[in-house]
Amino acid sequence: MGVDGLRYAENDSIIRIEDLVFAYGRENEDAEADSSRARTDATFNAVDRVSIRVERGSFTSVIGRNGSGKSTLAKNINALLLPTGGRAFVAGFDTADETAVWEIRQRVGMVFQNPDNQLVSAVVEDDVAFGPENLGVAPEEIRERIRVSLSAVDMYEHRKMAPHLLSGGQKQRVAIAGVLAMKPEIIIFDEPTAMLDPEGRAEVMDIIKRLHDEKITVVLITHFMEETVTSDRIVIMDCGRVAMEGTPAEIFARSDEIESLGLKLPFVVELSARLRERGVPVPSGLLTEEALSAHLLALNGKARN
Amino acid sequence: MSIKAENLTHIYNKGLAYETKAVDDVSFTAEDGEFIGIIGHTGSGKSTLIQHLNGILKPESGRIFIDDIEITSKNVKMTQIRKRVGLVFQYPEYQLFEETVLRDISFGPKNLGLSDDEVVERAMEAMRLVGLDFETYAERSPFELSGGQKRRAAIAGVIAMRPDVLILDEPTAGLDPKAHEDILNMIRSVKERAGGIVVLVSHNMGDIAEMTDRVLVMDGGKLVRDGAPAEIFADEEFLKGIGLGVPPAARMANVLAAGGLASDRSVLTLGDLTDFLANRLGGAGGGADDETPEVSR
Amino acid sequence: MIRDITIGQYYPEYSKIHKLDPRLKIVVTLVYIVSLFLVKDFIGYAIVFASIGLVVAMSKVPIRFILRGLKPIFLIIAFTFTLNMLMTKGTILWSWGFVRITEEGLYNAVFMALRLIFLIIGSSLLTLTTKPIKLTDGIESLLKPFKKMGLPVHELAMMMTIALRFIPTLLEETDKIMKAQQARGADFETGGLIKRAKAMIPLLIPLFVGAFRIAQDLAMAMEARCYHGGEGRTKLNALKFRGRDAAAIIFVVIYLSAVVAERIFV
Fold first, then answer.
1. Neighbours of chain C (3+ CB pairs under 8 A)
2. What pLDDT is stored for residue B228 in this prediction?
3. Which residues span the domain enclosing A272?
4. Which of C3, C132, C227 is closest, CB to CB, to A164?
5. In terms of DSSP H, where are the helices of chain B?
6. Model ipTM?
7. Which chain B residues are Cβ-neighbours of A194 within 8 angstroms?
């Protein structure tokens, strides 16, 4: 049967996760019989019955504390990990289908946290070539892809450089170019800005937003609430489960719940919440600095009149 | 307790075509009890500067005094410096190496040549200060801890040397918001209980505004500003020009001021901004005026 | 600074020698090394000297830079020289106690020392004029015939590529950990052998842990980018044999004939 025959095309959810469970240490059957502590460890569900849909071309942010299962969930999307329970349908493929693994990974690119540990080659352009080489793309075509993808992240003039001489933000942009060169439909960013300085963080977020504008489906895993404000949907994970889900406006209206999950509100949202407590009439849907300041200035105008 | 740095200059790759002045004629003094923030763009020389303060790097020229000991002099003993100045590097958890948390934390005090009893006592104290329960964690492997806990254990390893000056380079880098807040609170409580001078290097202007009472600004190896946070963050244009910014509350306050809603005192933290706005716009009418602002002293 | 260390010392330049096919350069270097052992007298060395001198000049690598590469092995050269000088029997030129210097010994000593020096200049010229990554490509390509015999050629090349990429990263990591432990009072510099070896533990353990972390991250990243071994893989930089490579071959053939002719007829 041709691979295309397996493609799932019922609706437009490019990622459809159904009741997904991922347990670490399941293969360790002996430990299970040993002691009660070993048993809980052995059946530890890093992801626990999660169901999510991601629309094609959308921008989804996944947030949650360290150890909330968000990275594990991400690795289940491109078949780096396979679910121990439930299903993950990605770009029309079932990740459990072993024959489709390379098809899936070509369509689902992934950018990781540590800028130093994901570049393979000692020359930028050779690193970008790594993915296409693995896919067996012809050399002339690879050249073209290097040009396009390095230009897309504004790193083309650095194509001959050694990665260790680049800044953190530049390394992450090279990593993104390496993924783009595989022509993915989805890119998962697993805390891509966690190890960067503010400048690097801004550079990378800027690129991510541009990619979203170009209709690439973006899944962004992050600790920084500010980065999630412009996304279409936010998923908050806690203890392996989906604790909250919705648009940024819906999510940030529930500020108490967010704080109880050990997360920090974006600055603008936290300020709004505090002002409300102090009796200043501020609605909950204001998510950007511009929106809130405009509202406050209007209030000030009224107060004067 | 005081730090005095006089005309410090450090040059990398001296004599080669690509030699760079990482620290360029920097002078400052710090007195007991100060909480100092150092800010600067990546590559501005912050890291190089702080590595001089505990003798890891030797300056090309210039001198540093800790109290009246000249630590840049040739005949000073390293242990003399190390027990006065503790330096916590970025991602300090990567330096953990012992079999147990207790033994790792004891590494520093042991190197100072203290007795076994004294070493354990200090390690216990350090664990208490960083909020790691002795009973639970002392005998655990440091490699089994969570990210935030590893970081605390590593910081405890420096605190256990009981330095008079504690320098932390980006101590919250890479942590989730909860662990980030925990580390900041930990630093506050260490400062409160152990005193001395604390130096915090950070890219997070909000943290600098919340925590410190004096800010040094580095750019291109030079110390370009030195003053109270209110003073430093008042000049957003200047900071932007050297690739830095102001805390989010200050930025918001500046936007509001431009629109005619200006505060007559400096706004640096979320608390400041809330007080100011509640006072001006709040229905209940502000008791906030009577509150002491959090930062300006 | 530690991050400026370049393994194998590549000297960036745009010379004809730099542009040669790395495979050719590797083979020529091997031929050259063999030729050094064919030389039997100083006339032969004159041919070697003229040829390698021409190549060095064409490579645009400063002589100074090449000679600097001899420094670390100066001891070995001196040792060979002395050993040859003292251990060869023959006509005595000079003696003092049991130390005898013979005419043959002196000749041998100079001869051997020259052989070593030419050997090192020739082989360092290979790394000086060839980017490590090209060298890796060249080795992979040359070893390809051995694939059928079960030699994991692609894997070896990939290992070299990754090593080249991560040596600077690991050096940086070493530097950081060393400083961090020094800040905790570790002393790497004083004391006897055993004390120093012990002092390395706080450096080595974090370094190994770090290396494993890098390895894990990298393996994950490579898999995510569809790496599945050498099967069905294309290469961006396919090596191409060009006109200048043919010219180089002609030069090498002339050189080798000269060396062999000199050995047989002179």
1. A, B
2. 96
3. 266-305
4. C3
5. 46-53, 78-82, 101-111, 116-130, 134-137, 147-159, 177-194, 205-211, 229-232, 236-241, 248-258, 270-281
6. 0.88
7. 174
Query: Inter-chain contact B86–C1, Cβ cutoff 8 Å?
Result: no
When divided into structural domains, chain C yields a total of: 2
Comparing alpha-carbon positions, the chain B residue that sits nearest to A222 is B176
Instruction: Give ranges for CATH 3.40.50.300 in chain B.
Output: 2-239
Distance CA A39, CA A44 (A): 8
Query: Are residues C57 and C160 located together in one domain of the fold?
Result: no
Is the CA virtual torsion B197, B201, B206, B207 positive or negative? negative
Contact C234 A105 (CB under 8 A): no
Q: What is the mean pLDDT of chain C?
A: 87
Strands B69-70 and B61-66, by their bridges, are: antiparallel
C65 in the same domain as C34: yes
Backbone angles phi, psi at B127, to 5 degrees: -65, -40
Question: Each residue of A27-75: pLDDT tens digit?
Answer: 444 433 333 334 445 568 899 999 999 999 999 999 998 889 999 999 9
Paired tokens of C204: 């080595």
Q: Do A271 and B270 touch (CB under 8 A)?
A: yes
Domain count of chain A? Answer: 1
Q: Which residues 183-202 on chain C approach chain B with CB closer than 8 angstroms?
A: 183-187, 201-202
Contacts of A275 in chain B (CB under 8 A): 274, 277-278, 281-282
Residue B217 CB neighbours (<10 A): 23
Tell me which residue in B248, B251, B281 faces A296 most closely, judged by beta carbons: B281
At the topology level of CATH, where does B2-239 sit? Rossmann fold (3.40.50)
Note whether C234 contacts A114, CB cutoff 8 Å.
no
**Inter-chain contacts counted by CB atoms under 8 A, chains A and C:** 97
Give per-residue pLDDT as tens, A13-32: 999 999 999 998 744 444 33
pLDDT tens for each residue of A94-146:
999 999 999 999 999 999 999 999 999 989 999 999 999 999 999 999 999 99
pLDDT recorded at residue C8: 57
Range of the domain at C164: 152-224
Does A289 fall in a domain?
yes
Same domain, C7 and C109: yes
In angstroms, the separation between the Cα of residue C40 and the nearest Cα of chain B is 43
Q: Does the CB of C155 have a partner CB in chain A at under 8 Å?
A: no
Task: Report if residue A301 sits inside a domain.
Answer: yes
CB contact under 8 A, C184 and B92: no
Q: What is the mean pLDDT of chain B?
A: 91
> Does residue C218 lie in a domain region?
yes
- Give me Rg for the CA atoms of chain B: 21
Question: Which chain A positions have a beta carbon within 8 Å of B270's beta carbon?
Answer: 267, 270-271, 274
Give a yes or no: residue A300 inside a domain: yes
- Among residues A20, A9, A18, the alpha carbon closest in space to that of A91 is found at A9
B-chain CB neighbours of C202 within 8 Å are 95, 97, 107
SS (H, E, C) B195-256: CCEEEEECCCHHHHHHHCCEEEEEECCEEEEEECHHHHCCCHHHHHHCCCCCCHHHHHHHHH
What is the tens place of the pLDDT at every residue in A151-205? 999 999 999 998 988 999 999 999 999 999 999 999 999 999 999 999 999 999 9
My answer on whether C13 and C83 are in the same domain is yes
The residues of A whose Cβ lies within 8 A of any Cβ of B are 65-67, 113, 167-168, 194-195, 197-200, 223, 225, 262-264, 267-268, 270-271, 274-275, 278-281, 289, 292-293, 296-297, 299-300, 303
